[in-house]
Design brief:
By secondary structure, the protein is α+β, with helices and mostly antiparallel strands. The protein has 2 domains: 130 residues, Arc Repressor Mutant, subunit A, CATH 1.10.10.2910; 123 residues, Beta-Lactamase (2-Layer Sandwich), CATH 3.30.450. It is built from 10 helices and 9 strands. The strands form 2 sheets. Strands 6-5-9-8-7 form a 5-stranded antiparallel β-sheet. Helix 1 packs parallel to helix 6. The longest helix has 16 residues. It is globular and about 55 Å long. The two termini are 16 Å apart. The relative contact order is 0.14.
């Protein structure tokens, strides 16, 4: 795929609201001159936020913040066995709740954030959660730096893995793929599948073709379905039938490219989809 397939927006569209602006100011004042990677745990310590890992296998949250409304400090509780990238995003998400002024009451009640909170977007009703996700994304993958690194690469799992590595932003592959989708001007999407069905999906603003509904069975001929049938994933984009993923209400004159990331601990499949129009 040509490198021009990923051209990133300057402003980030609807997702560039309070959380992103707050994180940009946070980096400017707390992390002047720092490069791509920031030390999230050190930021928590500087805010007197103790990091505690739950001893319960499934505590009912991914991360949970407790803090005084007007005071400084508190604690962030994490569900156990989160890998490095996921742990960093969880902490950054809770830092968003801690620093966003409109989240004061939420902090007092205890910001308990599960899996759905960690993937909330601007189209979701839970505004505090997508604001905290915007904060985390901008803190860990600042737009200016991420855009420069991603713009010369294709929309694929191979690219997401590279940007997620500790050489670049040290985040999960899912977080890097999400950020690529969030900032792209091209028609693309990411889809998380479980047992052959769509669990959740996120689109770029220009991916407006119907489909990718939660609970929909994945069509035969997709890279994800091949994995669920005993095959292997593919980090480089492969062409698949458009209607294997999407439900076009009009003829789609283009090619749909799919690459996949297998999440080994759960068996979930992350598919990155890019629609290349035939002009």
């Amino acid at each position: 795929m040509a490198s021009s397939s990923l051209i990133l927006r300057e402003d980030g569209g609807r997702d560039s609201r309070i959380g992103r602006r707050a994180a940009a100011l946070f980096r400017q004042h707390r992390l002047p001159g720092i490069g791509r990677r920031c030390d999230v745990e050190e930021l928590c310590r500087a805010d007197d936020l103790e990091i505690l890992e739950s001893r319960i296998a499934d505590p009912g949250y991914t991360a949970c913040l407790f803090s005084e409304v007007n005071g400084k400090g508190g604690a962030i509780f994490l569900s156990p066995k989160q890998d490095g990238g996921r742990r960093r995003f969880s902490l950054a998400h809770e830092l968003g709740h801690y620093h966003l002024p409109t989240h004061r009451q939420l902090r007092r009640q205890g910001a308990s954030c599960g899996e759905s909170a960690m993937r909330a977007g601007a189209a979701d009703a839970a505004h505090p959660e997508w604001e905290a996700n915007d904060f985390a994304s901008e803190l860990l993958m600042p737009t200016r730096l991420f855009r420069a690194d991603a713009a010369s690469r294709d929309f694929s799992v191979a690219t997401a893995r590279e940007l997620a590595s500790d050489t670049y932003f040290d985040v999960s592959v899912t977080a890097a793929a999400w950020r690529m989708t969030q900032l792209s001007t091209e028609p693309c999407a990411i889809v998380m599948s479980i047992n052959g069905k769509v669990h959740w999906a996120r689109r770029s603003e220009t991916m407006r073709i119907p489909g990718l509904r939660r609970g929909r069975s994945i069509g035969a001929g997709t890279v994800a379905s091949a994995y669920f049938s005993g095959g292997a994933g593919e980090v480089q984009p492969l062409e698949v039938e458009v209607d294997a993923w999407l439900e076009p209400r009009y003829p789609v004159h283009g090619r749909l490219l799919e690459s996949t990331h297998i999440i080994g601990t759960t068996g979930h499949v992350l598919s990155m989809l890019y629609l290349r129009w035939n002009w």
